[in-house]
């Protein structure tokens, strides 16, 4: 790996001035999980008012990268972006889904800016190219009563992977495989953190809107996410939740949750995984 392509603070900080991440970067060559490191650091400093918001934990390789649920994240050394962000938003746990959604928008914008490629958002936390996953987002919270102490937002991006293990090949892709060329990870990481900074500030403005009606508070963010995702409207999907059911997506509700219309009526996806139904239109109105 060229020193210029390492995700070192000295490579990234000059590109991050005027963001919450400037001067708050931590780098490792190998870790078990950046989310684990970020969570430990955030917990240790939970009661320290001077502890900065916007710390970013970056690694060249993860040996036990965390995915959603019980899944792991394949983290080839020097090929991807393995990043966990710590924020301390003044939100309730009920509003925490917006953190994953704005992270998806930030990834999408950064990828377009650096590579020109257009990614799709699969609610709530995946980004796809040609229906294959190249980015996953994992938000983990520390909460008490009705407030969030801190949130750790893990973002894994397959950038320059040339191949994947056999069990992942039909599911995963990388920016290199989609474009036929390698991309500078430092530039992409800087674009990601700058985009997240912008989207996070927008979310905090929405949170502090004196009009406490979700459709008004979060309406602009909701519309942005819907416009960026082919999964938001009219997609035939199967939802792995409450025993599993199928239907057609019908936009996001005012809290950011996905609506799916079935024969039994409109259902709200709270945390289940959503997958497309290909060539099975008869299943679109199943249970």
Your description of this structure?
This protein has 287 residues and is an alpha+beta fold. 26% of the residues lie in helices and 29% in strands. The chain contains 7 helices and 14 strands. It has helices at 9-12, 34-44, 97-115, 175-179, 185-207, 214-217, 219-228, and strands at residues 25-28, 55-59, 65-66, 72-73, 80-87, 120-122, 126-129, 132-144, 147-158, 233-240, 245-252, 258-262, 265-269, 273-276. It has a 7-stranded mixed beta sheet, sandwiched between helices. Strand 8 and strand 9 (147-158) form a beta hairpin. Helix 3 (97-115) runs antiparallel to helix 5 (185-207) and helix 3 (97-115) crosses helix 7 (219-228). It is globular and about 55 Å long. The protein starts with 8 loop residues before the first helix and ends in an 11-residue tail after the last strand. Mean pLDDT is 91; it is low at 280-287.
